[in-house]
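4-diphosphocytidyl-2-C-methyl-D-erythritol kinase
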Amino acid sequence: EAWRPDGEDGRRGAGGPVKVRVPAKVNLHLGVGPLRRDGYHELNTVYHAISIYDELTARPGDTLTLTMEGEGAGELALDDSNLVIRAAHALAGYAGVLPHARLHLRKQIPLAGGLAGGSADAAATLVACDALWGTRLSREELAGIAADLGSDVPFLIHGGTALGTGRGEAVSPVLARPTSWHWVVGIADGGLSTPAAYRELDRLREAGTAGPPLGSTDALLAALRQRDPRVLAAALGNDLQDAALAMRPALADTLKAGEAAGALAGIVSGSGPTCVFLAADEAHARGLARDLTAAGVCREVRVAHGPVAGARIV
Ligand code: ATP
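Tokens:
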């Protein structure tokens, strides 16, 4: 449960660098309910952290600076609009300390990919700066700041497999037998805007052309309790998938290619455009990744497993 490693008192980094690793998420079930008065949709989701990671290093500094490498470098603004900078300011403001740090982000999670990379970076920043500055907030306090930064941020501190309700920010762990699930992740060229995907879903629903809403997570939770990936495959679902397909019709080819390659199931991850495919085991995932790469429908294909821990000092 601790986000600090065993024996970690939270003061590591009082002088030295603090390095935090944070995973990407997929939604095994993404049930989108009605639009709320605050502009968010009521969600009923099962989050699952997978082994694609960003890494944030925090060092002492005289001001707050951010540099980055990897996915999105050169595209992503490093100013106050960046979720890393926003997270550092939010923590410093809450704890009453100066937001001084030299932050460096190594990004492997694609931008606007439906894998919550920005939220992951915000979660990593909270954990790293909490250690660097010795603010030592409780897990609940961090989760509160996280929720203000974005609906997915509390889960990315948490990790594992968890139920998300409200606008996704209310997270409770899913108790399941320790099982690793094996995934193939098909990354597309370019991103999709999450707000645009929700707007498209609203439009499809108004026009009466959206599929029926997924509703309860019961079937998915029951499937997780079994160890059979075929059972899990049948329970995966995403209410945003039709919207993502409407905005990016080529994703249908990606899903088809995964199916043709023998995936147990394929779904759009979150708001897309990343597609994830469930494999029977690790060897099956490797074979599937090879075939999906050969099909030429993705910018990049990676294998991953889950669940993995949330933002952790390494
Ligand atoms: P989600 O699944 O949570 O909707 P996503 O994976 O589709 O997110 P992200 O990469 O998390 O998309 O971010 C979406 C947008 O957030 C980016 O296009 C960018 O404008 C902004 N952003 C701000 N800070 C970051 C960051 N550190 N990393 C990625 N995106 C960021």
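The longest helix spans residues 117-132.
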